[in-house]
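I would like you to help me understand the sequence and structure tokens below and explain how sequence relates to structure.
___
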Amino acid sequence: MGAGHAHGRLYRAGDSIVHRLPPQCKLVAVVAFTLVVVATDRERFPAFAGYAALLIVVAAVAGIRPPFILRRMTVELPFVLFAVALPFLSPGPRVEVLGVWLSVDGLLAGWNILAKATLGVVASILLAATTEPRILLLGAARLRLPQLMVQIAMFMLRYADVIVEEMRRMKVARESRAFAARNLKQVPVIARSAGALFIRSYERGERVHLAMLSRGYTGTFPVIDDISASRWQWGIAGTLPLTALAILAGSLL
């Protein structure tokens, strides 16, 4: 597979042991860690503290600073809002907190959503921050994920910036003709622009496909990067989920 876009907003180049791990090892580690987190009972508060400490250690080893992580955690804002609303909306026994009566079940349910979503999001951010998107997709292919899914993701990665740039040019063209989206009357213009963008993207996709066929494309990309993993690297990556599993087992005692 050829080089893709850097997407520096997510990836942070580095030379830490986390950066050097093969992508398939990190993918399996993050998925296994997330499964352990999801399987943890919501009232095992020390276990969640242990999981958070694990991610802090990984971030420190990888050299990923807290502000970088916090800025990208805004993706979980809908989960946060839902979790905050649950103590007010849920029925059942209530408890007074700072002069406000809140549902006990709602507090636990909100904590469950907030804790697990936050840990999963932070683990995903660390994965994306220490692995180039193109290499991450190569790791997915190495794990024998469906080839079609991997190729679709690769094309999305390659051409997302192209589509965004096309949208920018169309926006400039509208504004140069004194267009301004101030009210609902402009909705038809926006809708026609979206349709035109879809047609242009479809036509570009056809041209790209024909160009690939003319260069010998047979349904799979040639892999030119060596991303094989040794037992030692699998062992390093397995430290995260295995430690999380040990924390869960310890909380059950």
